[in-house]
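The methods section describes the discrete structure representation at length, but only in general terms. What matters is that the chain and its backbone geometry are given together, residue for residue. Nothing conveys this as quickly as seeing an actual entry. For illustration, here is how one protein appears when written out as sequence plus structure tokens:
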Amino acid sequence: MTAITDLGIAGLRDGFRAGDFSAREIADAFNGAVAGAKALNAFIIETPDHAIAAAEAADSARAAGELLPLSGVPLGIKDLFCTAGHQTTAASHMLGGFTPTYESTVTGKLFAAGAGMLGKLNLDQFAMGSSNETSAYGNVVSPWRRNDGGNAPLAPGGSSGGSSSAIAARIVPAATGTDTGGSIRQPAAFTGIAGIKPTYGRCSRFGIVAFASSLDQAGAMAQDVRDSAILLEAMSGFDPKDSTSLDVAVPKWEANLSSDLKGKKVGIPKEYRVDNMPAEIDALWRQGIEWLRDAGAEIVDVSLPHTRYALPTYYIIAPAEASSNLARYDGVRYGLRDLPEGANLQEMYAATRAAGFGPEVKRRILIGTYVLSAGYYDAYYTKAQKVRALIARDFEEAFRRVDVLLTPTAPSAAFALGEKSADPLEMYLNDVFTVPASLAGVPAMSVPAGLDGQGLPLGLQIIGRPLDEQGVLNAGLAIEQRAGFTAKPQNWWAK
């Protein structure tokens, strides 16, 4: 018999509705799994009482025949989402002890749909990082290990590394993530799970701690494509509290899932064949092309000529917006206040920001402040915005010819913790395949598709037209069914 904690959203939902187990049994099983996985450091705080309260409400609702879409399903919540009455830190000392009095729109929708919360998941500080090593609460550890006998702990990807590690370890069935330049898709690829970044504006940003406002987007992380569709459907929808929220209907993504791609065209962008790409990733990409062809799709070569400028463009725009957004953390209104004896206001600002922000956050604030300064604004920020428009136009041109694009998700499998942290530029290169879709605001998903020679997961990325999450999910399902990815990490972390 399958253990409760091995089930994803669909399995838990359907088993609960069929009476195979109670919601309280589900909550107890996952609360126990979370409590027994401290070695992963995936959670900043645990909230077992929240999960139990939601479970008891679900059991009562089932008895009354009044089930909600996520009744009986507990979730992990990335600690970038404000949760009323529960600490929200963005993994930074700057927000240590901050307890919101309001709920983010995304978590509010999930809880209204019946979900419980197992806890707040660790992340890179203010979502800035690709390895979950910048958290003020310590790095998250991937549950995966290389099969060559080496025990070096691996990065779970970032910034949503707590989410990816917890799902891969089966201590949560699914979790929220946020994606600014690949922070859902890259950790999903590193840990062998599915993760989707929807069209910019699909999910409200209200109540999500801001990094780069024109790029940040909430999304779903889960064991597979179906669970991703279920979770994204519950998270999405127009929100008048978010000026960038799209006033469009939320489709029935799960009900319309289909792996039949007959009549669809899949584009293969030549610019994603980067120098020194590992042969295993190139081979998996070619295999993915064959899987989609087998599903009935026509394969078409396309060009996205400005792709090579995407990474430098992103690392001008994102730090610039971060510099502006993080200016609010000054020790005056909320969060940390460091007030040395005899200090004036400016000295308090400096002391608070020096103590509250970590090195990577400071680096990006400095970069952003520089490119926004009077002498460099046009040379850097204005020019980057023009290139961003060209990148978006490349996608528009490609989608006149094809329905979705297929690329690798990341240029490598998971690397060891500490392996790249001394070289920020090398770390930034992890986002080379994910950043273009973020700059264009189009939906994109990573699906687990295979293992490398050391037994570590590799993912394939599907990129779609704006608002065509269905096309992305369907292509992801076609890959998922043909890849047959069932590998799980060995349970070394449980006590």
